[in-house]
Design brief:
By secondary structure, the chain is an alpha/beta fold. It is 48% helix and 14% strand. It folds into three domains: 4-85 and 102-131, no CATH class; 143-324 and 333-486 and 820-827, Rossmann fold; 490-717 and 774-813, Glycogen Phosphorylase B (Rossmann fold). Strands 1, 2, 5, 6, 7, 8, 9, 10, 14 and 15 form a ten-stranded mixed sheet that branches. The chain has a six-stranded parallel sheet with strand order 18-17-16-19-20-21, sandwiched between helices.
C-alpha cells in the first residue's frame, strides 16, 4: 500500500544530499536513520528496551523525535532572529487548530521526504504503518480550526514573524461511532500517549487572578463566583514548519492548572477530595474542546475557557513586546493580534485593562492602541451563532472587564447618537449590551468596535455581513470592513495528500506551484493535451484504488473504485443540507425500484461529519443516511449500482485519503448561510467537480474556473430571503411526483420498519414547520444538475478536461494568497527571513 507522499524515493537522491540537508538544519554529520542514527538512538535511549521488543507506537515516537531533532536548531534560530530584528509580529488567537497529523507534513515541509524514504527503504521500515500510529491532534472540530492550521503553515512559508495561540485540550470534541445508524460519542483522549511534537515550557507559565474559583460537582465542572482564585496557564509549544524549513514558527497551547500548592496535611489526614479538589477542577478547564453548551454549566465553562485563552496569550505577547520595547506607545507598531471568530473577543477588554491598569496609560491612548493592535475575522452569518454572554457572568467573574466594556459601550452609544440623532432602533442594534430580561454582552459587536479591521471570509459572506448581519455597525465604521476569501495550504492538501497528481502537475509545469499556487494557471493548455488528460485519469484512479484498499483494511467495507465517488463531508447541520443529499439518493433509489432495467453508472455516495451531541435533528439526519444505506445494500435490485457509505470519525487524516479520490464535491448549503467553506477548495485543487449552490467561496471558485465547469443549482441568497414570506414546501410535495415519492419512502417507515415513527421529526421540519433551509425548494434543481453531471461523467475525456481546468483555476484559493492579503491590508507585517 502507498504511504502517500512520504516514500517516493528519488533515484537521484544520494547520501551526500542527505548529509547536506541535515547540515542545513544544524545536525552536522549525524545520520537520521541507520546504525547509531537519530532514530536508533531515540528508539533505544527513550525506551530502554530490546529493540526487537519495541512496539509500533514507541517506534513512531522515536521517528517523530528524530525529525524534531533535525528542526530544533532552526526553530531556536527563528525565535532568536525575531528578538534581534524586533519586527512587527502577528499573534493569531483561535479556540481551534485542526492540525491533523504532524509527522508527514513536517517531513514534507523540511524537504526530508526523499532522504527519509531512502533510509527507511534501507532499513525495511514500513513508514505508512509508522505514521498511522500518530493520532490526529484533538485541537479542533471543523473548518474554523483547519483554516487556522492552514494559516499557520502559510505564515511560516511566507517567512512572516508569527505565533499561534490556542488551548491544549486533553480530549478532542469526541470520537464518533455509529451504532444502529445512530451517532454515539466517546472521549477522544488523544494525549493518552506522550506527544513528541510538543515542548512544555513551565518556566513561562502565566498566573491569572479570577473573581471566581472552580469545583467538580457530581462529575461536572462549574465556576463558583465571588470566591477569588488564581490559575496557572502552562504553555506547550509545537513547531510550525514553513515549506523549505527556512522559518519555523510556534503554536503555543495553554493548559490550565491550580496555582496553590498541594495541601499535604489534608491529604495525610485522609481528606483526599479537599486536597486535590482545586487541582482537579482547574485542570478540567482545558480538558475538553467545546463542552456541551446545552446546559448553563457547559456555557459557563466555555466562557471561562475563552477568557483563559485570551488572558494567557495577551500576558505572553505583552511580555515578548516589553522584552525588546520600552515604549508602550509602540505597541500597535510591533503587535498585530488577529481574533479568529468571536471566541477570543475578550481580548478587547483584557488588552485595554492591561494598558490602563498595568501600563497606567490614559483611556484615549489605551483605547487607540487596543483598536490598532486588534483585528477580527467573522465566520458566521447565523444570528444564533454570534456569541452572547450573560452580563451577570462578567459581573460575578470578571467585574473589572465589565466596567471596561460598559465604558466602551457608553462612548460608542454617545458617538452613534451624535451621528444618527433620534434613531434609537439603530442605537439598540449597535449596542454591545443586549437589553432584555437577562442582559447579555454581544461579543461580535465588542470585537468590531474594539478592533481596526473586521473581515468576512468570502465575497458574498463579507457583503452580507456588512449589509445584513451587522449593518448598523458597518455604517458606523465603514472603513473597518473588508473581505479576505479563505484558502488552504497546497503543501498538505495536494503535495502530501495526492502524490500521483502532484507528480503529474510537476512533470507538466515544474514544482514552483508548491509555494506559488497561481502557477497552476499554466495547466490550462494541458486540458487539451491527451497525454496529460490520461495522466490525470491515472492519478485519480490510483487515488480511488488506494482509498478503496485503505477503507477495506481499516473498516472492512468494500467499495467499487470504478464507481463515481460522490462526496459530502462537513459538520452535520441543517443549513449544510446533508438531508437534501439524502433526498437526492432516495429519488435515485426510487427510479431504480420502479425501473430495474434503467441504465445507471455505478455510484458511491460518501457522507462524513459529526453532529453536536445536543443537536437532535442533526443526529437524526445521520440516522436517516445510515438507514437509507442499509436499505439500499439489502435490495438486490440496486446492489452494485447505488451505495451509501457513512464514514465515522471524520478528521484531517481521513480527508487526506478521501479528497484525492473524490470525483464529485457536494457544496449544497442554503444560499446565504455558508461563510466560505474550505473543503470546496481542497476538492477543486484535487480535480473533483463541484455540484453546488451559489454560496460562500463556491461562487468565486465558479467564477475562476467558469460556471460551465461547475454544476450550479438552486436559489440564490437574494431569492432565499425574498421567498420567506410566501414559500410553501407542501407545494413541492403535492406537485413534484419524485419529491413526494422520496418523502413518502422516508415517512412510511420503509427505511425504519423496526423503528416506526423514527423520522417523524423530519416530516415536521420539512412540511409542518416550513422547511426553513429550503430543501424542497432546491431538490428538483439539484436533480437536474445531477443529471448533467452523470451525462458528463459518461464522457471521460470531457470530464478530465473540466477537472483539469478546475485544478488550473484553484491557485487563488491558496492560504498563501489569503495570508499575504492579511499581512498587507490588515497587519502591516513584512517577512523576517531567518539567516
Amino acid at each position: 500500500m502507498s504511504t502517500k507522499g512520504i516514500i517516493s524515493v528519488d533515484e537521484q537522491w544520494t547520501k551526500a544530499d542527505g548529509a547536506k540537508l541535515l547540515k542545513q538544519y544544524g545536525c552536522g554529520p549525524i545520520p537520521f536513520m541507520g546504525a547509531d542514527g537519530l532514530y536508533d538512538r531515540h528508539l533505544l535511549f527513550d525506551n530502554i528496551k530490546d529493540l526487537a521488543a519495541i512496539p509500533g507506537r514507541e517506534r513512531y515516537e522515536a521517528f517523530a523525535r528524530s525529525v524534531r531533532d533535525v528542526l530544533s536548531q532552526r526553530w531556536l534560530l527563528t525565535g532568536k532572529t525575531y528578538e534581534r530584528e524586533n519586527p512587527k509580529r502577528v499573534y493569531y488567537l483561535s479556540m481551534e487548530f485542526l492540525l491533523g497529523r504532524s509527522s508527514a507534513s513536517n517531513v514534507i515541509n523540511l524537504l526530508l521526504d526523499p532522504f527519509v524514504a531512502q533510509t527507511a527503504k534501507q532499513k525495511d521500515i514500513d513508514l505508512l504503518c509508522l505514521l498511522e500510529q500518530e493520532p490526529d491532534a484533538g485541537l479542533g472540530n471543523g473548518g474554523l480550526g483547519r483554516l487556522a492550521a492552514c494559516f499557520l503553515d502559510s505564515m511560516a512559508t511566507l517567512q512572516l514573524p508569527a505565533m499561534g495561540y490556542g488551548l491544549r485540550y486533553e480530549f478532542g470534541i469526541f470520537k464518533q461511532s455509529i451504532e444502529d445508524g445512530w451517532q454515539h460519542e466517546q472521549g477522544d483522549n488523544w494525549l493518552r500517549h506522550p506527544d513528541p511534537w510538543e515542548v512544555a515550557r513551565p518556566d513561562e507559565a502565566v498566573e491569572l487572578k479570577l473573581n471566581c474559583s472552580f469545583e467538580l460537582q457530581g462529575g461536572s465542572f462549574r465556576a463558583v463566583p465571588g470566591r477569588p482564585s488564581t490559575l496557572l496557564g502552562i504553555p506547550y509549544d509545537r513547531p510550525v514548519v514553513g515549506y523549505g524549513g527556512k522559518t519555523i514558527n510556534t503554536l503555543r497551547l495553554w493548559a490550565a492548572t491550580a496555582s496553590n500548592s498541594f495541601d499535604f496535611q489534608e491529604f495525610s489526614s485522609g481528606d483526599f477530595a479537599s486536597a486535590l479538589a482545586d487541582t482537579l477542577a482547574a485542570g478540567s478547564l482545558t480538558r475538553v474542546l467545546y463542552p456541551d453548551d446545552s446546559t448553563s454549566k457547559g456555557q459557563g465553562l466555555r466562557f471561562v475557557q475563552e477568557y483563559f485563552l485570551v488572558a494567557c496569550s495577551l500576558a505572553d505577547l505583552v511580555r515578548r513586546f516589553r522584552k525588546t520595547n520600552a515604549d508602550w506607545s509602540e505597541l500597535a507598531d510591533k503587535v498585530a493580534i488577529q481574533l479568529n471568530d468571536t471566541h477570543p473577543a475578550m481580548a478587547v477588554p483584557e488588552l485595554l485593562r492591561i494598558l490602563l491598569d498595568e501600563a497606567h496609560l490614559e483611556w484615549d491612548q489605551a483605547w487607540d492602541l487596543t483598536r490598532k493592535a486588534l483585528a477580527y475575522t467573522n465566520h458566521t452569518l447565523l444570528p444564533e451563532a454570534l456569541e452572547k454572554w450573560p452580563l451577570y457572568w462578567f459581573e460575578t467573574m470578571l467585574p473589572r472587564h465589565l466596567e471596561i466594556i460598559l465604558e466602551i459601550n457608553r462612548r460608542l452609544l454617545d458617538d452613534a447618537r451624535d451621528r444618527f440623532p433620534g434613531d434609537e432602533k439603530r442605537i439598540e442594534r449597535v449596542s454591545i449590551v443586549e437589553e432584555g430580561a437577562a442582559r447579555k454582552i454581544r461579543m461580535a459587536n465588542l470585537a468590531i468596535v474594539g478592533s481596526h479591521a473586521t473581515n468576512g471570509v468570502a465575497a458574498i459572506h463579507s457583503e452580507l455581513l456588512r449589509t445584513t448581519t451587522v449593518k448598523e455597525l458597518a455604517e458606523l465604521f465603514p472603513e473597518r470592513f473588508n473581505n479576505k476569501t479563505n484558502g488552504v495550504t497546497p503543501r498538505r492538501w495536494l503535495l502530501l495528500a495526492n502524490p500521483a497528481l502532484a507528480h503529474a502537475i510537476t512533470g507538466a509545469i515544474g514544482n514552483v506551484w508548491v509555494t506559488d499556487l497561481d502557477k497552476l494557471n499554466n495547466l490550462k493548455p494541458f486540458a487539451e493535451n491527451a497525454s496529460f488528460r490520461a495522466a490525470f485519469r491515472d492519478a485519480k484512479h490510483e487515488a480511488k484504488s488506494q482509498f478503496a484498499n485503505w477503507l477495506k483494511t481499516t473498516s472492512g467495507q468494500v467499495i467499487d473504485p470504478n464507481s463515481i465517488f460522490d462526496v459530502h463531508v462537513k459538520r452535520i447541520h441543517e443549513y449544510k443540507r446533508q438531508l437534501l443529499n439524502a433526498l437526492r439518493v432516495a429519488v435515485l433509489y426510487n427510479r431504480l425500484r420502479e425501473n430495474p432495467d434503467l441504465q445507471m453508472i455505478p455510484r458511491t455516495f460518501f457522507f462524513a461529519g459529526k453532529a453536536a451531541p445536543a443537536y437532535r435533528l442533526a443526529k437524526l439526519i445521520i440516522k436517516l443516511i445510515n438507514n437509507l444505506a442499509g436499505t439500499i445494500d439489502g435490495d438486490p435490485v440496486v446492489r452494485g449500482r447505488l451505495k451509501i457509505v457513512f464514514l465515522p470519525e471524520y478528521c484531517v487524516s481521513l480527508a487526506e485519503h478521501l479528497i484525492p479520490a473524490s470525483d464529485v464535491s457536494n457544496q449544497i448549503s442554503t444560499a446565504g448561510y455558508e461563510a466560505s467553506g474550505t473543503s470546496n477548495m481542497k476538492f477543486m485543487m484535487n480535480g473533483a467537480l463541484t455540484i453546488g449552490t451559489r454560496d460562500g467561496a463556491t461562487i468565486e471558485m465558479a467564477e475562476a474556473a467558469g460556471e460551465e465547469n461547475f454544476f450550479m443549482f438552486g436559489l440564490t441568497a437574494d431569492q432565499v430571503v425574498s421567498s420567506r414570506g410566501w414559500y410553501n414546501p407542501y407545494w413541492h410535495y403535492e406537485n413534484e411526483p419524485e419529491t413526494r415519492a422520496a418523502l413518502d419512502l422516508i415517512f412510511s417507515d420503509y427505511l425504519s420498519r423496526n423503528e416506526p415513527g423514527t423520522f417523524a421529526p423530519l416530516r415536521d421540519t420539512l412540511l409542518t414547520h416550513g422547511d426553513f433551509y429550503m430543501h424542497l425548494a432546491d431538490l428538483k434543481s439539484y436533480l437536474d444538475a445531477d443529471r448533467r453531471l452523470v451525462e458528463l461523467y459518461a464522457q471521460p475525456d470531457d470530464w478530465a478536461r473540466k477537472a483539469i481546468l478546475n485544478i488550473a483555476s484553484s491557485g487563488r484559493f491558496s492560504s498563501d494568497r489569503t495570508i499575504n492579503e492579511y499581512a498587507i491590508d490588515i497587519w502591516n507585517v513584512k517577512p523576517c527571513p531567518v539567516p
